Amino acid sequence: MQENFRIKRHEVEKSDESYFQGVKDCIPTLLGYLSIGFAAGVVGKTSGLSIAEITLLSLLVYAGSAQFIFAGMIAANGSATAIIFTIFFVNLRHLLLSAALSPYFRHLTPFKNILIGSLLTDETFGVAMNQTANKKSISEKWMHGLNITAYLNWIIANIAGAFFGQWIKDPHKLGLDFALPAMFIGLLVLLMVSRAKIAVDVVVAISAVVIVVGVTWLSSASVGVILATIMASSIGMVVEKWK
């Protein structure tokens, strides 16, 4: 009987690490992807991009913040150099996201890590971090299920937004430009609730806001976000270790 229990438990653990379990765990974020992707498609269309260009952006860039920036700078006739460097600095946070998850994929080859990292987003990172509780590694199949589901959903949402965007002349009136920060706020709240470390998280959040505001006065907002991410997370680590 005890042996049967161990076998059933092993089967449950295996099912929790399967590709389709990754797809299932991605479902709660799909509504956010649909709204943000749709908004990105609409903003891109109203900025003068074609449906083909928006589709190509979603396929190759696959970053909500980058695509919003791209559309805005295109509308403002920004230079290619300025667009490239701005998007590069804004998306430097992905180095931190990948670094935080990398210990859980040490058992994989560099090529397999590249496949996982290339589709990693803020949202899939948040889901994956919840998966890391009491685990030393994350299933490769589970991560692919999570990443690919999010990726395909993002592409579909972008194309839909690009198609319907031709009838939406001013997306700012509908608040579509606020869709991205709204989703980030929602993810942050859900992560804080699941961690049950409100005091530490509040300290980190306040520190991040103060650092962003302070650095933005002296430099650009992009630099402020990067420094706030590094410094606030370091402060949170120190506070948690001290407690």
Automatic annotation (TrEMBL):
It is found in: Cell membrane. The chain crosses the membrane at residues 145-168, 174-191. Keywords: Cell membrane, Membrane, Transmembrane, Transmembrane helix, Transport. Its main location: membrane. GO terms for biological process: L-valine transmembrane transport. Pfam families: AzlC. It is a multi-pass membrane protein. InterPro entries: Brnchd-chn_aa_trnsp_permease. The keyword Protease does not apply. PANTHER family: INNER MEMBRANE PROTEIN YGAZ (PTHR34979). This is AzlC family ABC transporter permease. It comes from Cohnella terricola.
